[in-house]
């Protein structure tokens, strides 16, 4: 059954390292709740109370808009093979844009991904495990390369144009500051 921890243990960190997908949830008091699946090699545990993950260009930019207004974030990992477990990380996050000082250091933790747009730096205040007995077994057969191919074809200028057209506002009209943030328009 559910157990609570103040930080990640070594076994939690090992579990996270084996996962091929995680889910991110954010919301403001007035916005829709956003739940987004994340794949790729895009998450790093920096300490028992700190994780960072690289966000690539997508159809929306809800997480960025939400976190800039209300920094609450939840990450969820599910075991789709082996013993059943669900691991949730609760905390607060900050958005790091390409123009921010922290970008160079943190982006170097990840393989270069076309369309990389933000890094989320999350401080954990609660770690929870639960049984996951109803989560089905699923087999991992490989990563989809479609997003990387799409972003690669667009190129850097095409990606920035896409951000301008599709990634500046959340569904609820909250700004993401993707083009306005610290040098992005210079």
TrEMBL record:
The lineage of its organism: Bacteria, Pseudomonadati, Nitrospirota, Nitrospiria, Nitrospirales. InterPro entries: Pyridox_Oxase_N (IPR011576), Split_barrel_FMN-bd (IPR012349). Residues 12-129 form the Pyridoxamine 5'-phosphate oxidase N-terminal domain. Pfam families: PNPOx_N. This is Pyridoxamine 5'-phosphate oxidase N-terminal domain-containing protein. SUPFAM superfamilies: FMN-binding split barrel (SSF50475). It comes from the Bacteria.
């Amino acid at each position: 059954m559910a157990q609570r921890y103040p930080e990640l243990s070594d076994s939690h960190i090992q579990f996270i390292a084996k996962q091929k997908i995680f889910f991110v949830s954010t919301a403001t008091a007035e916005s829709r709740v956003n739940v987004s699946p994340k794949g790729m090699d895009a998450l790093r545990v920096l300490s028992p109370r700190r994780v960072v993950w690289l966000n690539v260009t997508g159809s929306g930019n809800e997480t960025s808009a939400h976190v800039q207004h209300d920094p609450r974030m939840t990450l969820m990992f599910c075991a789709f093979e082996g013993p059943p477990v669900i691991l949730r990380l609760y905390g607060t996050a900050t958005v790091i844009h390409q123009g921010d000082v922290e970008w160079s250091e943190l982006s170097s933790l990840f393989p270069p991904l076309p369309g990389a747009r933000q890094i989320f730096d999350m401080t954990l205040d609660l770690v929870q495990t639960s049984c996951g007995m109803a989560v089905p077994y699923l087999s991992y057969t490989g990563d989809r390369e479609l997003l990387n191919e799409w972003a690669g074809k667009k190129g850097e200028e095409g990606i920035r144009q896409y951000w301008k057209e599709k990634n500046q506002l959340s569904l609820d009209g909250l700004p993401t500051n993707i083009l306005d943030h610290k040098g992005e328009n210079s």
